[in-house]
Amino acid sequence: MTWTMENLNSAPANRVAIVHLKLQDCTKSPSEEIEVKFQLTKDAIEAMLRSLTYISEQLSNMAGTSSEPAQKKQKQ
After folding, report:
1. Spatial CB neighbours of 18, under 8 Å, sequence gap ≥ 6
2. How many CB atoms lie within 10 A of CB 61?
3. Distance (Å, rounded) from C-alpha 42 to C-alpha 8?
4. CA 28 to CA 30: how far, in whole Å?
């Protein structure tokens, strides 16, 4: 994963991060690499990080608990 900033000379609300991901398609033999590019605003990144933090906490708490699916709670 790599990323760059765009609109550096703009107001902070107008700046975006361009994220580049290289994904491997393991369903193909030999596996293929696919590049995905998307842009995120600061608000989108913050929401994404909150969700990822919640997922991480849930995974950490699952050690030694039942195998029932955890209830997803959306933080806003």
Report:
1. 3, 4, 5, 6, 37, 38, 39
2. 10
3. 13
4. 6
Amino acid residing at 39: Q
Residues belonging to the chain: 76
pLDDT digit of tens for each residue in the chain (76 aa)? 899 999 888 888 888 999 999 999 888 888 889 899 999 998 999 999 999 999 999 999 986 565 555 555 555 5
First to last CA, the chain: 26
Contacting residues for 13 by C-beta, under 8 A, at least 6 apart: 41, 42
Asked whether the beta carbons of 17 and 39 are under 8 A apart, the reply is: yes
pTM for the structure as a whole: 0.57
Gyration radius (Cα) of the chain, Å? 17
Question: What does the alpha-carbon distance between residue 54 and residue 67 come to, in Å, rounded to a whole number?
Answer: 18
